[in-house]
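So, can you check this record?

>
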Amino acid sequence: MKRSDVAWLAGFVAAGLALRVPGLLTGLWRDEGSTYFDATAPTLAATLREIRLAEINPPGYFLFMRAWLALAGTSDLTMKLPSFVFGIAVVPATYALGRRLASSEAGLLAAAFAAFSTLGIDLSSDARPYALGALLAALSTLAAFRILLAETDEPLAPALIFYVIAATALAYVQYTGLLLACGLAFGAVVCRLALPTLARAGTLPTGVRTGTQPTRARVGAFLVANVAVAIAYLPWFPALGGAGRVSASWLQPIGPGQFPARLLEEIGYALPLDFMRTQFAVLLLVAGAIAIALRRANPAIAIGAVASLAAFAAETWLLLREPRYVFVFTPLTYVLVAFALVALYRACAARLAGQNKSAWGTLATVLGAFVVISLFAGIPAQSRAFARTMVHPERSGMRELVAASHAGFDARTLIVVAPDYLGPALGYYLRAFPNASVLGIPHGAHPEHFRCCEDAWRRPSLVADAEREILARARGFTRIAFVYDPGATDRGEIPYSRALELRAGLMRDLPVLSEHDYAGSLEPAAVTVFGAPPRS
């Protein structure tokens, strides 16, 4: 690395560090509460059982957190600190990937994307697997290209061993990591079959050495490494179906003809911009095509592009349609975006200098002008998105709710939580009150262990049955603290809004003693305190 590259990279790491530190103080929301209860289960078998029943991620991160929390304690800070470290490490890992696939300039630009990404900043303070998944994705992808593009006399064994370890760890940390590994294998095979044709057509960049192209032996070795990863994953493979059911229950299926738009939306999530995501997804695909036509491509970028599109298509089809699920793809997509922009810049500079007067050069110049205009036009929207990230409000209102209500959460109060997806965060902040009596709707006891059960929510008698159970249980208490989500709405196949129907029914039957709302950027919470029904 040149001294200037080291300085720039150090600056990006420092900026990323400064931007992520405030997120350590934002408290825990419901998914992070689930991490706590998964990782602190009484036994290892209990931890694995919780993950199989309720998680949409494999056990790797939670087993790591089990060991970490046993060592460091269970405060808000210690819960978030591992993701913070992993999120910072993504920045230099992305640089290394960009430098290996394209150039030091693309690597630095990709590292800047990683440092300033609002999604990366957010997930670096989330006690969930996503920052670790992105780091392992960068390392395993780097190892993959070390294998595929090795020089003729370069030994493959170290890279093969490293890839198997990193890719297996990734598969055990995040399910979408499996899609990335499959995409890389698919991309290697496709490009190996296509490169001879491209070479004969003269569309490979001039000066590309034969040793930098993926030979049949290197592709074969990479496929064998992926087989080893698959074998290592066999113990957890039966749990894949259960995770899919949990995820699909609250997501709308893709309607006829919607797949292309959904795919572009997913690609947009992984772009380093918060505005014009879909438009820029299309724009960058066009920029990539122009770069290839102008002979700015290379085999590594071709493999990466095919791998990314295959992974995004599979992820969209599997209904894992949220930014946190595609974050694992961002180190590679940031490199592809950086490569496209650097190539576009060089093409425009050559055209303006009179070195390339072809139609492709003219098109590149027009496209470059459009990119610049769009970026300037999007500065206000991007600034607002960045400002929202920098405000760092409480993620959940539950910390403030419990702190404000702790005097009332005594043995005389029945705490009802509805919907009980609020249970993990409430349970985390109630851990100082082990004798608190908590009833979850619809699952009853132990709502801190979230269970996504759409059948219970769709049961016609749910509200009436829940109200009868609350009134029956409350006869041994002096008041009822009804903790709920004030913005509860139906999501996917689950009518969560029925929790508000339940609250309205209780308000008709019981006296209201107090009401309070507590804001949260990811999880608002509210509590209505009722007087208990008179004893019969």
The chain has two domains: 3-244+272-390, 398-531.
